[in-house]
């Protein structure tokens, strides 16, 4: 609101049922009921009880659920394998959307995904009549805006195509009027025709306020999840230990103890990890940055981690942008924590008892790579 953003391209309420999918970090996890409650509260916070001049409209995505990608391959790209439902759980992925319909989400974004075994034609969701017209519009009686995902055909940036289709009799002008009506109705409800401008001076005072930053930092700490605490090793005592750190800034760690460079001389080691991933062999630049592939540590990297855990008592913190396969690491670590985006200071505050971890895992952690290979969309 402060900077004039009146529509948010979220929440993302896909269910993280395929642990290899790269976009899990944007979801609320794998549980449909939890996601439903979170999504409804999210929309209430952004939009209020009804859309008005104090609202930020929510475009909820990705209908009818983008999580169950075959082999975890994201459908943004041509190497995708479609969406699969080996447990016949297509309807399970709809539950969060039923919640946001009740919460009056202003808009819906379908995904690129192609349903492969759910009884629908093999056409991407944005162009799938059974999904958009029959399911979304008719069954759920949804009358809000529907927007295709990024990069798909849209009349807003190539209107000449729509004009040609209307003149050629392929699309009725009355059909375009339906979409225009929905868009204009939302803009009127947001008050964009009454007062489309913001107070730039006020915006500068609001954005980045210290209390807002502090709230974000506190949220990082509260979300950290304690997975293992062998012999009640945690919390550690600040200022009394020689600490060996890996993937942590030494100058930050020095605020909590004496940093040493040789793990053999340390009282404790603290290491931060991230869920592994393997770049897809592709010429598509965007695809190279998506975290596809296996979830387990391999080869020299795994050996290095396990060697450290065998040398000195070690606390492991792992950033879970996807579920990681870490049974050997878990077995040897004295303490194991998960974060979902946290600074070194936030992690160390929890390790040294300045802040209690309060997070819970939003998804299961597979015991091996064989598990995701058959799990799919459960």
In terms of topology, how is this protein built?
Blueprint: E1 7-8, H1 32-47, E2 57-63, H2 95-102, E3 107-110, H3 129-139, E4 145-146, H4 159-167, H5 173-189, H6 200-206, H7 210-223, E5 225-229, E6 242-246, H8 250-253, E7 258-259, E8 268-274, H9 285-288, H10 299-311, E9 314-319, H11 327-332, E10 335-339, H12 344-351, H13 370-375
Parallel strand pairs: 1-2, 2-3, 3-4, 6-7, 6-8, 8-9, 9-10
Antiparallel strand pairs: 5-10
Helix pairs in contact: 1-2, 7-12
Task: Offer a concise description of the structure.
This protein has 378 residues and is an alpha/beta fold.
Oligomer state equals single chain
Order of helices and strands: EHEHEHEHHHHEEHEEHHEHEHH
Number of strands: 10
Which spans have pLDDT < 50 for at least 5 consecutive residues? none
Category from helices, strands and their pairing: alpha/beta
Number of domains: 2
Q: What is the CATH T-level topology of the largest domain?
A: TIM Barrel
Largest sheet: 6 strands, mixed
Spatial shape: globular
Strand content: 5-15%
Query: How far apart are the termini?
Result: 39 Å
Pfam families: Glyco_hydro_3
GO molecular function: beta-glucosidase activity
GO biological process, one term: glucan catabolic process
Enzyme class: hydrolase
């Amino acid at each position: 609101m402060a900077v004039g953003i009146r529509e948010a391209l979220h929440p993302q309420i896909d269910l993280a049922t395929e642990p290899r999918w790269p976009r899990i970090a944007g979801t609320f996890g794998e549980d449909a009921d939890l996601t439903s409650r979170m999504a409804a509260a999210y929309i209430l916070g952004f939009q209020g009880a009804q859309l008005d001049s104090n609202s930020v409209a929510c475009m909820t995505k990705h209908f009818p659920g983008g999580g169950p990608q075959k082999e975890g391959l994201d459908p943004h790209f041509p190497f995708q394998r479609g969406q699969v439902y080996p447990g016949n759980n297509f309807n399970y992925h709809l539950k969060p959307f039923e919640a946001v319909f009740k919460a009056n989400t202003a808009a819906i974004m379908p995904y690129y995904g192609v349903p492969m075994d759910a009884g629908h034609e093999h056409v991407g969701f944005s162009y799938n009549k059974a999904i958009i017209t029959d399911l979304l519009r008719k069954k759920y009686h949804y009358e809000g805006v529907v927007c295709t995902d990024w990069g798909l055909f849209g009349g807003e940036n190539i209107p000449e195509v729509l004009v040609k289709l209307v003149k050629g009799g392929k699309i009725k002008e009355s059909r375009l009027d339906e979409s225009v009506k929905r868009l204009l109705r939302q803009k009127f409800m947001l008050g964009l025709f009454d007062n489309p401008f913001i107070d730039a001076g006020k915006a500068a005072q609001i954005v980045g306020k210290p209390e807002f930053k502090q709230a974000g930092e506190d949220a990082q700490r509260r979300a950290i999840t304690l997975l293992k605490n062998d012999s009640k090793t945690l919390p550690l005592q600040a200022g009394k230990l020689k600490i060996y750190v890996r993937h942590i800034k030494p100058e930050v760690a020095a605020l909590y103890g004496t940093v040493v460079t040789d793990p053999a001389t340390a009282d404790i080691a603290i290491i931060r990890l991230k869920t592994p991933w393997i770049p897809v062999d592709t010429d598509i630049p965007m695809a190279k940055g998506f975290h596809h592939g296996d979830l387990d540590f391999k080869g020299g990297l795994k050996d290095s981690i396990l060697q450290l855990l065998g040398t000195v008592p070690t606390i492991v913190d792992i950033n879970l942008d996807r579920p990681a396969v870490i049974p050997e690491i878990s077995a040897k670590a004295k303490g194991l924590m998960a974060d979902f985006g946290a600074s070194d200071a936030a992690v160390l505050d929890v390790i040294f008892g300045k802040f209690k971890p309060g997070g819970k895992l939003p998804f299961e952690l597979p015991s091996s790579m064989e598990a995701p290979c058959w799990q799919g969309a459960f």
